[in-house]
Amino acid sequence: MKRTRYSEEQIIGILTEHEAGVKCADLCRKHGMSEGTFYAWKAKFGGMTVSDAKRLKALEDENAKLKKLLAEQMLDAAAMKELLSKKW
Questions:
Q1: How far is CA 20 from CA 16, 35, 39, 43, 80, in A?
Q2: pLDDT of residue 88
Q3: Is the CB of residue 54 less than 8 Å from the CB of residue 8?
Q4: 56: Cβ–Cβ under 8 A, 6 or more apart, which residues?
Q5: pLDDT for 33-54, tens place per residue?
Q6: How far apart are CA 19 and CA 65, in angstroms?
Q7: CA 48, CA 5: separation in Å to the nearest integer?
Q8: What is the distance between the alpha carbons of residues 38 and 77, in angstroms, rounded to a whole number?
Q9: For the chain, which residues make up each domain, given as ranges?
Q10: Are 24 and 69 a contacting pair, CB within 8 Å?
Q11: Are 45 and 12 in contact (CB under 8 A)?
Q12: Alpha helices in the chain (DSSP H)
């Protein structure tokens, strides 16, 4: 996964600047990012505080671990079914 240049705290700081009245184009020029990136951040982090963003990141990490465990269990179960379905 690609590593971002900005932390969640920085992203929320940029979004709060926009809420304070700074234009999107000015923010993008100042921070060296595209408007598409800004609007993607706004969709994901809009209205959040720093603690909310940290909690979201922790939940996303936990969800990824659980999905990986589930996939491994499903593979094991499929292999066991295949083994048991064969005639001896």
A1: 6, 17, 16, 17, 59
A2: 62
A3: yes
A4: 48
A5: 999 999 999 999 888 888 998 8
A6: 35
A7: 19
A8: 44
A9: 1-48, 50-87
A10: no
A11: yes
A12: 8-19, 24-31, 35-45, 50-85
Shortest CA distance to 41 belongs to which of 67, 73, 15?
A: 15
40-47 own/partner pairs: CB under 8 Å, 24+ apart: 41/11, 41/14, 41/15, 42/15, 42/18, 45/8, 45/11, 45/12, 45/15, 46/15
What is the structure's pLDDT at 75?
96
- Helix or strand run (H / E) with residue 87: none
User: Which of the residues in the chain have pLDDT under 50?
Assistant: none
Half-sphere exposure of 41 (CA within 13 A, CB side): 24
41 close to 14: Cβ distance less than 8 angstroms = yes
pLDDT at 11: 92
Tokens, residue 51: 């603690």
In 3D space, the residue among 53, 40, 43, 47 whose CA is nearest the CA of residue 10 turns out to be: 53
